[in-house]
Write a structure and sequence with these properties.
The chain contains twelve helices and no strands. The chain is mostly helical. It has two domains: 56 residues, Arc Repressor Mutant, subunit A; 112 residues, Tetracycline Repressor, domain 2. The longest helix is centred in the middle third of the chain and has 31 residues. The N and C termini lie far apart (44 Å).
């Protein structure tokens, strides 16, 4: 696994010896702060204390830059580990994946833009498929399980990144204003839903992500048992 984000930030310092790794780390930091819209060779060169033209020796084009950035993010994630319990292995890996994508909210969008199947990406694909096959999934069910898990976590990460961006720029009283604008007699369920989020019950709560991941894995386990049970 690659170095942590704080260690990476410390490594990106002005006048540091230029390398492909330093350029990519600087690009990740820049995207974390300003989003992909703020990423340019000029801005990146300023970020790492270099000249824009010098970067092209290490990163020849935009596609190579984005692919390398995605690889740096993927290398922060923990792939599925070989284990007797396929479900626990998959859950740990998907929790890691979501946490990393929350740290880099631009990466979930980038993952959908047809970047190459690099070794970093293939390592995660291979580990998840091997875990499913080792857990008793085969044929079409293994394919469905792989895509259901992959899409679920990526979809959650996309939604959370977009929602977080929305709430950062929204007025502090946005939820209260929305609730006040809803006629409760016409929309009682919607009003009650907003009220729940404004005043949640006390005590520990299971996150909706954890709940949905558990439900998905429970359903896949049920299907696995059904397809493997002799009739």
């Amino acid at each position: 696994m690659s170095e942590s984000a704080p260690a990476r930030e410390a490594a990106v310092a002005p006048r540091a010896r230029l390398s492909r790794e330093l350029v990519l780390d600087g690009a990740v930091l820049l995207a974390d702060r300003d989003g992909l819209g703020g990423l340019s060779m000029r801005n990146l060169a300023h970020e790492i204390g270099s000249e824009a033209m010098s970067l092209y020796h290490y990163i020849p084009n935009k596609d190579e830059l984005l692919t390398g950035m995605m690889d740096r993010v993927l290398d922060e994630m923990s792939p599925c580990a070989a284990a007797a319990d396929w479900r626990a292995s998959v859950k740990a890996a998907m929790v890691s994946r979501r946490a990393v994508l929350l740290r880099h909210p631009w990466a979930a969008d980038l993952q959908l833009h047809g970047l190459r199947l690099t070794p970093s990406r293939l390592r995660h694909m291979e580990a998840l498929l091997a875990t499913l096959h080792g857990g008793g999934f085969s044929g079409a069910l293994a394919d469905h399980a792989y895509h259901a898990i992959d899409i679920s976590v990526l979809g959650w990460s996309l939604w959370e990144a977009r929602f977080d961006a929305l709430t950062r720029t929204a007025p502090a009283d946005m939820a209260e204003a929305a609730l006040a604008a809803i006629p409760r007699d016409a929309w009682p369920e919607a009003a009650g839903h907003l009220e729940f989020h404004l005043h949640p019950p006390e005590g520990p709560r299971v996150s909706t992500f954890d709940l949905s991941l558990d439900l998905l894995l429970d359903g896949l386990e049920r299907l696995r048992l059904e397809t493997s049970t002799p009739r």
